[in-house]
Amino acid sequence: MCSFAMNNKKVVKEWQTHIIAKAEKRLQRELTDTERKHISSRGGFIALEMIEDTVNDLEGDELADYLNQEAKT
Question: What is the pTM of this model?
Fold first, then answer.
């Protein structure tokens, strides 16, 4: 595997961890497995940017609903 791809994996993992921590802080609790999966299953930069923006914009029940949206379909 080339070093660029390995660096991307590291950046993605760190970004996912950052978003999870931010969501937990905004919700004032640990994320559920479903909520964590919503973030950690995305590996594209654009997707992570959109998720981070949404986490920054929402709070409380709206944020929880967003993170659980796929479980409701």
Answer: 0.89
Query: In this structure, what token pair is assigned to residue 4?
Result: 């660029």
- Tell me the chain's radius of gyration from C-alpha atoms: 13
CB atoms under 10 Å from CB of 21, counted, come to 11
- What values do phi and psi take at 31, rounded to 5? -75, 150
Tokens of 9: 């994996």
Element (H, E) at 4: helix 3-27
pLDDT digits (tens, 9 = 90+) for 52-66: 999 999 999 999 999
- pLDDT, tens only, 3-20: 655 679 999 999 999 999
CA distances from 43 to 2, 4, 49 (A): 17, 15, 10
Helices and strands (H and E) in the chain: how many: 4, 0
